[in-house]
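# step 3/5: fold
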Amino acid sequence: MVKVKYNDAGTLPLISIITVCLNAELFLEATMQSVFSQTYPHIEYILIDGGSKDGTHSIIKKYRTQLATWVSEKDNGIYDAMNKGIGMASGESILMLNAGDWLEPDAIQKMVEKANYEVKDKFICCDWVVFYNSSNRKIYRQATFDFNKRNGICHQGSLIGSTIYRTFGNYDTSLRFVSDFDFYIRVWKTSPSAFLRVPAYLAHFMYEGITTTRIRQSTIERWQVLNRHFLWTESIHIRLVTLVAITYRTTKTYLRK
């Protein structure tokens, strides 16, 4: 196993990986192992726990010497925890890897290489795989940067430069489910040239996360984000898809009653 290393990689940019979690004893260790197995040698790993009551703490303590820092305290939701991690990060670029998600061993290396190691002002995105814990089903997704048509990236596969966070601010904590989508649009509308795609499946996104387990609420919130940023004429495709999804999931909810 290749351990996470600090300050021993010469002039390579430091990359911060942040994992936020809550009661994640079933999934956290696999996520952490994927970070420790990265071939890129200059990573700091930060873990933000929301005050877990299960065995999460014992897993964190098992690997605490390989963490740059960690904290366990109540927060105001996933985006508040992510913002907390950003405030602790000292890397030139930051990747959010939630408990249950994992990276291919060469993920960070390939993403940094895509930007020729100039990562501070880049939004580097790889392709990703959605996997299901309840089955062997997998969905392969390619990163696209047309946010008025679709949400074409995931934060598990997005290496975001520190300058971008300083310029555009952190995640909007008034949004519970799709604040990352809102953030992507804010950056894209102003700086579309910052986005770079790595055409390789380097990130694995567990379907059973908060956005997908509460998919009706997250779809409604996505509609609100679209209203915030786009006219109907600018975003007709994603609006129609979202409207159909809201109708379907609302009907399904009422039929269960």
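# step 4/5: annotate
Confidence is low (pLDDT under 50) at residues 1-7.
# step 5/5: archive (pending)
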